[in-house]
Design brief:
hydrolase, DNA-binding, EC 5.6.2.4, 19 strands, alpha/beta, 7-stranded parallel beta sheet, about 850 residues, elongated, acetylation, 6-stranded parallel beta sheet, binds 2'-deoxyadenosine 5'-triphosphate, metal-binding
C-alpha cells in the first residue's frame, strides 16, 4: 500500500514536472510568435514605405487610400486662386520667405475646405498652417488650445505682427467677452482668430449659440484644434474636455477642421478622428526627424549629475540658452540653486509658482537675461524660443512622446542643438510610482527606459518606430550617441546572472518578503541583513552592471513591478515576471547588448590593474546607455583619466562578466565532483548539513548540474581558451576537459569519464532533466526556508539532517502526508530511481 502511494506520488510529480516543461515550451513559443509578429510588421512597413514614400497617409479607413502621392504634389503647388494672397501674406505679415515642408500643402488643403490632421515635429511651424489661411478667409478661425498661457503667447506674437486675434477664457472680463461675442457675428470681422479653451466650448452655451449664428452667416471660416492628441486617452496629455469637441463637427459639418499635433501615433489619430466626428480627414505627417538635433543618453550618477550638467553649461554651451528638465518642483528649486552656486544664471520654473513669477522667468530667459531654465514639464507648450542650443533631462521623461516634445524645444532655428538625457536607475521607479494610476503609464515608461537602455539602435530609429515611421539608421548622420560611437557593441550572455538575481527575488518571496529594486541591487552585491547575505550568491559585477541587468530583466518580463500603497506613498517592489520561470529551463538563455570599447593599451592597463587583473584585459565595454561618465571611470580606476571622450566613458568590464561566469562554472564543477563521490542515501544527511552553509543550498540535482555545466564548460573552453582562470583550473578539471578537444569530443570524454554516472543518459532524456530540475527547485526552496529559519538553532547543533532540522522542519510546508523522513526518502528514492533507469 505504502509502495503504491509512493509510486503514485512519484508519477504525479513526474507528470507535474512534464506539464511544467510543456508550459515553458508554450511560453517560449509565444515569445517567438511575438518576435516574429513584430518582425512581420516591420517588414510590412518597409514594403508599404517602398510603395509610397510620401508622407501623407489618407483616411484612417485603411482600404480607401483617399490621398495619393500625386494628390500631395497637387496641393504642394501654388496655382490655386488663393495662392498669390497666401504668398504675399507669408512675406508681408509673417515675414517669412518660403514654406517649410508640408506647410504649403496643409494650407492649400485647408483653404480647399478639407478636414486635416497635421502631425509635424514640435517647432516646425504648425501654427502658420491655420494662421495664414485665417488671414486669407472671410470671417474668423476658431482655435481650440489647451492652455491659457499658450494662447496668450500666440496672441502676443500675432499682435506683434499686427494680426487681430482675441481670446475667450475664464479670466476674460465681462466687457471683453461681450465685445468678442458681438464680433463673432459682425460681417466686418473685427478679428481673424478666436482662441478658446476646450472647457469654454463645453461649458458656455452663449459661445455655442454665437458660433451657431456665425456658422449660419458663413463667418466661421475654420476650426483649428491645437494639440489634438489631447482628445485621446492614448495620447500623452489627455484632457477630458477635449472629448466633448465632437459637438463642433456635428453642429458645423461644413466648416473645415484642422487638428495639429507634434506627437501622435496612428492609433491616437484614429481615436481623435472618432472623438472629433471627422469623417475622412487627410493626415499629413511631416517626417518627425529633426536632423539638427543630436540625441544622447548618459548614465546618471546621482552624486555628480549636477556637476556634469554644470560642466556642460559652462563649457560646451557657454553663453548659450537652454533648458534643464527635472522630475519635481523640489528638484527644480534644488538643481537651479546648485547651478547658481556654480555661477550659472539659472532659475526654476514649475506649476506651483505665481503666474507673474513664471512669466518673469520666461521673459528673462527669452531675452537672454538668464541662461538656463530649470523646469518641470510645466514649462512646455507655447515655448517658442528659436535659439535653444541644449535641452538636458536631469531625469528621464515619462514617455517617448513627452521626451520628443520636451527635447524638441531645442534648435527651432534649424541650428545644431543637443538633447541629452541622464538615465538614472532609481528615477525609473520614482516615475513608475508617479504614473501608476495611468492606464498606459507603465508601458509608456518602459518604452522610454528601453530608449535609454538601448545601445544597438540609432536613437532616432527608436523614436521612429514609436511614431510608426520607417527609418533608415544611416540617415541619422551620426547625430546620436549610438550612431556616433557605432560598432562598439558586444552581445553578452547574462543567463547565469539573471538566474542569480531572480533567485534573490524568489527567495525573498518564499519568505514573504518584498524587495525594492534598490534592495535587490544591494542584496545581490552582498549588502543588507547578514541573514540574507549568507543565503545568496553575491555578484562580483559592478553597480552599473547590476543595475543594467536588472533593468534588462524588467524590460523583458523576467521581473515585473509590484506596487504597494500606503496612505502617504506608493512603493515599487520587484516581483518575478511572466518569463522568470523560463530560467528554470537549462536551454533558455538571455543575452544583452553592451557597448564595448577597444581602448588604448595604457587605459586597458590602468583598468585591469585597478581591477586586480594580472592578465591584460582584451576589451572594455561600458554600461548600455552610458556615454561619457568621467567620474565612473575615475572611480573604477581609482585615478583620474584624461578628458578624451573615449577615456571619459564609464567602462563596464565585460570580461568581468565572462570571468564571473567562468568562476561560477568552476565552482559548480567542484561541487559536482564532490557530489559524484557520494553514492549513498547517507550522503543526503551530510548534504543536509551542507545546506546550512549558504553556498551549497542549491545542490540537490547532481545530474542536472553536471550535464549543464559540462556543456557550458565546452562552450567556455571554446570561447575563452586563453583566459587566465582556465590556466588556474584544478588538475581534476583539466582531466575532464582536454584542451585540445572540441565540444563534441569533450562530451564523449565526459561520457567516458563518468560512464557509471547518470549524467550521460540525462543528456538524452530532456524530460528527466526537467523532472530533476523540478525536484531541485522544490527541495531547494524548502531547504532555503530551513536554512533561514534555523540560523541560530543550527549554530549550536551537531551537523546531521535530523538533529539540526527537527525544530525548524515543523513549520515547513511539505506535500500532504509527507513526514520529514519520508520527504527525504522520497527525494532520494526518486534520484536513485533515475539513476537506475539511466544505468
Ligand atoms: N516657413 C517658415 N520658415 C521659417 N521659420 C518658420 C516657418 N514657419 C514657422 N517658422 C518659425 C516660427 C516659429 O518661431 C517657429 C515655430 O513655429 P510654431 O508654429 O510655433 O511651431 P509648432 O506649432 O510646430 O511648435 P509646437 O509644437 O511647439 O507648438 O518656427
Amino acid at each position: 500500500m505504502a509502495n503504491n502511494i509512493d509510486d503514485a506520488q512519484a508519477e504525479l510529480d513526474s507528470v507535474e514536472a512534464e506539464l511544467e516543461v510543456v508550459e515553458l515550451q508554450i511560453s517560449e513559443l509565444l515569445e517567438k510568435q511575438t518576435k516574429l509578429n513584430s518582425r512581420k510588421n516591420k517588414l510590412l512597413k518597409i514594403l508599404e514605405g517602398a510603395c509610397s514614400s510620401a508622407q501623407p497617409s489618407g483616411s484612417s479607413k485603411a482600404p480607401k487610400p483617399s490621398f495619393s502621392k500625386q494628390d500631395l504634389q497637387h496641393y504642394e503647388e501654388s496655382d490655386f486662386s488663393w495662392s498669390k494672397e497666401v504668398q504675399a501674406k507669408l512675406c508681408s505679415v509673417f515675414q517669412l520667405s518660403k514654406f517649410r515642408p508640408l506647410q504649403q500643402a496643409a494650407i492649400n488643403l485647408s483653404m480647399s475646405g478639407k478636414d486635416l490632421f497635421l502631425v509635424m515635429p514640435t517647432g516646425r511651424g504648425k501654427s502658420l498652417c491655420y494662421q495664414l489661411p485665417a488671414l486669407c478667409s472671410k470671417g474668423f478661425t476658431l482655435v481650440i488650445a489647451p492652455l491659457v498661457s499658450l494662447m496668450e503667447d500666440q496672441l502676443m506674437y500675432l499682435k506683434s505682427i499686427n494680426v487681430s486675434a482675441v481670446t475667450l477664457n475664464a479670466s476674460s472680463t465681462k466687457e471683453d467677452s461681450k465685445q468678442i461675442l458681438a464680433g463673432m457675428i459682425d460681417k466686418n470681422s473685427p478679428f481673424k482668430l478666436l482662441y478658446v479653451t476646450p472647457e469654454k466650448i463645453a461649458k458656455s452655451k452663449l459661445l455655442m449659440s454665437k458660433l451657431e449664428k456665425a456658422y449660419n452667416m458663413g463667418l466661421l471660416a475654420r476650426i483649428a484644434v491645437d494639440e489634438v492628441h489631447c482628445c485621446s486617452q492614448w495620447g500623452h496629455d489627455f484632457r477630458p474636455d477635449y472629448k466633448l469637441l465632437g459637438i463642433l463637427k456635428r453642429q458645423f459639418p461644413n466648416v473645415p477642421l484642422v487638428g495639429l499635433t507634434a506627437t501622435a501615433t496612428s492609433n491616437v489619430l484614429k481615436d481623435c478622428q472618432k472623438i472629433l466626428c471627422v469623417q475622412e480627414p487627410i493626415t499629413l505627417t511631416a517626417p518627425f526627424n529633426r536632423p539638427n538635433l543630436y540625441y544622447e543618453v548618459r548614465f546618471k550618477d546621482n552624486e555628480d549629475c549636477t556637476d556634469q550638467i554644470a560642466a556642460l553649461i559652462r563649457g560646451r554651451y557657454k553663453n548659450q540658452s537652454g533648458i534643464v528638465y527635472v522630475f519635481s518642483q523640489k528638484d527644480a528649486e534644488v538643481v537651479a540653486t546648485d547651478l547658481q552656486k556654480r555661477d550659472i544664471l539659472a532659475q526654476p520654473y514649475h506649476a506651483n509658482m505665481e503666474p507673474s513669477d513664471k512669466s518673469l522667468v520666461h521673459q528673462r530667459w527669452s531675452s537672454k537675461k538668464i541662461q538656463v531654465v530649470v523646469a518641470t514639464v510645466a514649462f512646455g507648450m507655447g515655448i517658442d524660443k528659436a535659439d535653444v542650443r541644449f535641452v538636458i533631462h536631469h531625469t528621464i521623461s515619462k514617455s517617448i512622446e513627452n521626451y520628443y516634445q520636451e527635447s524638441g524645444r531645442a534648435g527651432r532655428d534649424d541650428g545644431p542643438a543637443d538633447c541629452i538625457v541622464f538615465f538614472g536607475f532609481m528615477d525609473i521607479f520614482r516615475i513608475s510610482t508617479m504614473v501608476v494610476m495611468e492606464n498606459t503609464g507603465q508601458q509608456k515608461l518602459q518604452n522610454m527606459v528601453a530608449y535609454c537602455q538601448n545601445v544597438d539602435r540609432c536613437r532616432r530609429a527608436m523614436m521612429a518606430i514609436h511614431f510608426d515611421e520607417v527609418w533608415n539608421d544611416e540617415e541619422c548622420n551620426q547625430m546620436c550617441d549610438v550612431c556616433r560611437h557605432g560598432n562598439d557593441y558586444i552581445t553578452m550572455d547574462i543567463t547565469q546572472h539573471a538566474r542569480d538575481v531572480v533567485e534573490i527575488v524568489e527567495m525573498a518571496a518564499s519568505m514573504d518578503e518584498k524587495l525594492t529594486p534598490l534592495k535587490v541591487c544591494e542584496a545581490w552585491m552582498g549588502k543588507g541583513p547578514a541573514k540574507r547575505r549568507k543565503m545568496i550568491k553575491v555578484t562580483s559585477l559592478s553597480r552599473l552592471e547590476v543595475e543594467s541587468i536588472i533593468i534588462h530583466l524588467l524590460l523583458h518580463g523576467y521581473f515585473s513591478e509590484d506596487f504597494s500603497f500606503t496612505p502617504y506613498t506608493t512603493y515599487f517592489y520587484l516581483k518575478l515576471g511572466r518569463k522568470a520561470s523560463l530560467l528554470k529551463n537549462g536551454g533558455h538563455s538571455i543575452t544583452m547588448k553592451m557597448r564595448r570599447r577597444v581602448v588604448s593599451h595604457a587605459t586597458v592597463k590602468k583598468v585591469s590593474e585597478s581591477a586586480g587583473e594580472k592578465s591584460s584585459a582584451k576589451v572594455e565595454g561600458k554600461r548600455p546607455a552610458d556615454s561619457d561618465n568621467k567620474k565612473s571611470v575615475a572611480k573604477k580606476d581609482g585615478q583620474a583619466v584624461d578628458t578624451q571622450e573615449e577615456a571619459e566613458t564609464a567602462l563596464i568590464d565585460v570580461s568581468n562578466i565572462e570571468r564571473h561566469n567562468k568562476t561560477k562554472i568552476y565552482k559548480n564543477h567542484q561541487n559536482i565532483e564532490k557530489r559524484l563521490a557520494q553514492n549513498h542515501i547517507e550522503s543526503l544527511a551530510s548534504e543536509a548539513s551542507e545546506y546550512v552553509k549558504p553556498t551549497s543550498v542549491f545542490e540537490v540535482d547532481v545530474e542536472v548540474n553536471l550535464v549543464q555545466e559540462q556543456n557550458c564548460a565546452c562552450e567556455e573552453e571554446k570561447g575563452l581558451k586563453n583566459a587566465p582562470e582556465q590556466q588556474s583550473s584544478s588538475p581534476k578539471r583539466r582531466r575532464k576537459q582536454p584542451p585540445t578537444q572540441n565540444c563534441a569530443a569533450n562530451a564523449n570524454q565526459v561520457k567516458a569519464d563518468l560512464v557509471s554516472t547518470p549524467s550521460e543518459v540525462s543528456i538524452i532524456s530532456a524530460a528527466a532533466v526537467e523532472e530533476l530540475h523540478h525536484l531541485r527547485s522544490y527541495y531547494s526552496k524548502q531547504l532555503r526556508r530551513i536554512n533561514y529559519i534555523s540560523q541560530e538553532h543550527l549554530q549550536s547543533s551537531q551537523p546531521g539532517m535530523l538533529t539540526c532540522m527537527r525544530e525548524p522542519f515543523k513549520s515547513l510546508r511539505f506535500p500532504s502526508r509527507t513526514t520529514i523522513a519520508r520527504g527525504a526518502r522520497n527525494l532520494w528514492t526518486r534520484v536513485s530511481m533515475r539513476r537506475k533507469l539511466i544505468q
